[in-house]
Amino acid sequence: MVLEKYKQKRNFTSTPEPSGDVKTAEERAKKAKPEQGLFFCVQKHLASHLHYDFRLEWKGVLLSWAVPKGPSLDPKTKRLAMHVEDHPIEYGTFEGVIPEGYGAGIVMLWDQGTWKPEVADVDAALKKGDLKFTLDGYKLKGSWVLVRTGGRWGSGADGRSWLLIKHRDDWAGDVDIVEFAPKSVKSDGDFEDILAADQPDVWKSNRPAKGGEAGEMLAKIIERAARLKAGEAPSQPEQTHAPAARASKGETARAVKKPRAKAKAKTRARRTKP
Ligand code: MN
SS3 of 185, please? Predict the structure, then answer.
């Protein structure tokens, strides 16, 4: 059944995530015109580990892959992408705090836009494990491929391990896009702003990320969010991002690729609502 796994994993009385409406998915599927572009998004998700959820609209739902290191604009850098359960289309603009349970942590809408398949038969491409497509987001653009691979999580049509790879084109480059443009395309904020807008003290005990890099990151975010909520400017702002990372959405796309006439027009990124 559509979205069955998504629903099984979550308790909608304790998560702010959308419950996923099957009828919405059906209607969305009927209206979709792949040649005109379908919705895509990337959600930066600090849970037990930091990762980037890459989602492509298909048949009324969001096909989803968890990319631990996030997308790379460098065609030589292949990023592991773990295929996960389909998400509802309504999830596509979700940003917020999941206080407990599956995926507990903070979700940021890191990129969104439209995608177009570069193949005639998307279902066949997915089955084969080789889907080529074009993205038109704020941060990610141009031609990409998702390729299923063998390895730890099994191969064949049930394999969960894929690679997300940028194709060589005008939108490829060596800018580290996750470092360069770390913030939300929805709220323009960082994780601490999202947490501050919610309940910065939600994890007084039992934090979703305890040890390691993610634990350390979350501890700092909680501290900064509490100060934001209290109306205090952080005394010693953490210089975790290059100054360029504060660039606006338009600047982001321009800096990634030097503008040509066409690219410049494209830079006025369209915001697509799912
Ligand atoms: Mn996730």
Answer: coil
Helix segments in 37-121, DSSP class H = none
User: Which residues are placed with Cβ below 5 angstroms of ligand 1, an ion?
Assistant: 45, 53
Residue 75 Cα, ligand 1 centroid: separation in angstroms? 24
Residue with tokens 């959600």: 43
Structure-block tokens of residue 145: 């491929």
E-state strands within 153-206 = 161-166
Query: pLDDT tens digits, residue range 29-60?
Result: 999 999 999 999 999 999 999 999 999 999 99
CA end-to-end span of the chain: 21
In Å, what is the CA distance from 216 to each residue of 31, 48, 205, 220, 243? Answer: 44, 11, 15, 6, 22
| CA 62 to ligand 1 center in whole angstroms | 13
What is the predicted pLDDT for the residue at 150? 73
Q: What angle do CA 135, 138, 139 make, to 5 degrees?
A: 80
Fill in the DSSP letter of residue 46.
E
Q: Are 102 and 51 in contact (CB under 8 A)?
A: no
The dihedral of CA 154, 151, 80, 33: what is its sign? negative
3 state SS of 265: helix
Please identify which residue in the block is written with the tokens 């349970």: 101
143-158, pLDDT tens digit by residue? 999 999 976 555 666 6
Rounded CA separation 12/247 (Å): 36
- DSSP assignment of 169-219 equals STT--S--HHHHS-S-SSSS--HHHHHHHS-TTTTSSS-S--SHHHHHHHH
Give tens-digit pLDDT for 58-95.
999 999 999 999 999 999 999 999 999 999 999 999 99
Count the alpha carbons within 13 Å of 231 in the hemisphere toward its beta carbon. 0
CA 78 to centroid of chain Cα atoms:
17
Q: How far is the CA of 66 from the centre of ligand 1 (A)?
A: 6
